[in-house]
Each structure stands twice: as structure tokens, then as C-alpha cells.
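User: Can you help me understand a structure? I only have the sequence.
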Amino acid sequence: MRNETINVIDEIKQAISLLRRHLDWDQAVRRLDWLNNKAEDPNLWNDPSEAQKLMRERQQLDDSISSVRKFEANLQENIDLIELGEMEDDQEIVLVAEASLKEMLAEANRRQVEAMLSGEADGNDTYLEVHSGAGGTESQDWANMLLRMYTRWAERQGFKVEVLEMHDGEEAGIKSATILVKGHNAYGWLKTESGVHRLVRISPYDSNARRHTSFSSVWVYPVVDDSINIEINESDCRIDTYRASGSGGQHINTTDSAVRITHIPSGIAVACQQERSQHKNKAKAWDMLRSRLYEVELEKREAAANAEAASKTDIGWGHQIRSYVLQPYQMVKDLRTGVESSAPSDVLDGAISPFMEAALAHRISGKGNAVVDDIG
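Assistant: Let's start by predicting it. Here is the structure, written out as C-alpha cells:
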């Protein structure tokens, strides 16, 4: 067996061991057995809210335990195939098994990252806001590019995306937008993306073809379910209605159906224009406000999230978490972890998982922000 293959096998075994340790394997298996027995109890659904909570836990545990067992079975199967191929001098079988092991290692590494998503709201759907910074058309175009990047990433993950609110720029791009990303661990994956994003490029809007630096901010907060009680006094809120704007279709209408709710004590404002009904938009906006206030509470309890709150202060120099340079060279660099990509076109098309994985690992390590030199 080749040394490279032995190394891959060792890495897979190490990944499986880490997954088992993270699950607290024996305890997880006992818990799943208890939940399976509980699912057979006819009285379980007397409390639908508690039943749903237990069934979600059961599904997540079952998925995690099944994936580890599948890794172990597939690993042994491929080891046996390689040994058989070498005994019978069948190189084709060996190559197929080696390729399968490499795929397994990539998937095991991904599972390790998902194992980090154990925060209180990590499994929830999430809202994601994009806001352009100062700079007019340049920043508004950059905000639109970021919105597309996150939409493409979500689609690659098999998540569903709904546009809840969008304000177009005067000439191009967007001033702001809010999307709802639906999928398991959507918030857990996206939560490290909150902050200021910086773009350096030759401006397509500059007749002199000069380099421009643009800033836009991203803010991510989880959707909260009915089991999380967030009390809001309506007297603390201002509700404004206005006519929806956008490029057409569901994002524009001829009545004041769009709704913005401002929570005066915190200064938090949310808006929704997805529905044609003002009543439905208002209900959605209240949900968004509950989620924003919940996210604020999460930040207070999670020391690792303090840097995100600080990054929200200004959309400009000194606060960016990532720089995207398109000219005079091609580079994307995360300023918290140092992770880089020399293919910004791929990144802007949604290939941002490596940045998220590194940021999650960095955040969970509790080491605080790294000292990383900017580029551009």
C-alpha cells in the first residue's frame, strides 16, 4: 500500500475518532435509544412543542451516528478492496478505492466542521443583510455582488433563499437587501460572515479606469422559533409603511405594503417587502425583529462573537474582515484567519466554504482575532 494512501487512511481514522469524541459516543448512542423509545410513546404528542424538539434532536443524533458508522464501514471496505487489488495485481480496483478514500476524507473533514456547529441557534434558518457603504454606485454595485455571492453559496449547499427586502441603487447595484436562508445549520455556517467586506478593482463606472476601493457590510442573525421567548413592547417600536422598490416582479407594487419596524431602545431596524399584503409583511418584520434582538442576546453570552459587534460600527477602513482584490492581481484574503484564494471569480460565485470553515475553527478555538496583514 502506497505511503500516500496510508496517510489518507490515518487522516480518516483521526477524523472519525474526533467525531466520536465530539458526540461523546456512548452517551449519544444511549440518548438515541431513549429518543427512539420515546417516539413510540403515544402520549408524546400531548405537548407538540416538546415533541417537535425531541424529534429534531433524534433526527440530528441519528444523522451524526449513522454518518460515523458509514465512514467506518466504507473505510474498511476500501482498505479490503486495495488489499484485494494488490493481491490480484488489479490496479484498476486499487485506483477506484484510493479515489473513494480521498472523497471520504473530504467528507469527513466537512463533518468535523459541522460538528463545530453546536451553538444554541446554529441549526436554525438565518437572515442575512447586506448594506452598501459610502461611495455611491461603486459600493452599491459591490453590495449586489456580495448578495449574489451568498445566494450562490446557499444554492450550492442545497439551501432555499427568499428575498425579503431590497432597495436598489440610483444607477446600479443595491443600497441594502435582506434574504432568508433556509436549511439545516444555515445560521451556524453563515454567522462568521458578519462584518465589513472590502473590494479593490478597476471601476467599470470610471471612464479613466482608475482603481477604486469599496466597502459593504454583512449582518447575519438567526431565525428564532416559538420555543424562544423574546418579549417586545410595541410602545418601544415605530412602524413605518412605504411603497416597495426593486427591479420588478414580487419586489415592486403600487401600494404602501412594505413595512419597516424600528426598535427605539436598541436602534435596530428591520424591513420586509416580500409580500403584497402589508399585514403579512408586518408579521414577517416582527419575526425578523425578534430574531435580531435574540441575536443581540446571543452575542452577550458568547465572548467569541464580540468582534462581530465591533465590526458593525463603521463600513470602512479598519473594520473589514475580508478583502477581495481584482486588480492589479487576483486575491481574496480573510483578515481574521489569513486564509487566501487566488481565484476571486470562484469566490464571488459562491466558493466561500473554506473561509467559513477556517473562521468557525478560529472562533471555537477561543484565540481571538489573528493579526493578519491586509492586501491591495
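Now, to help you interpret it: The CA atoms of residues 245 and 252 lie 5 Å apart. The longest strand covers residues 211-222. Let me know which part you'd like to focus on.
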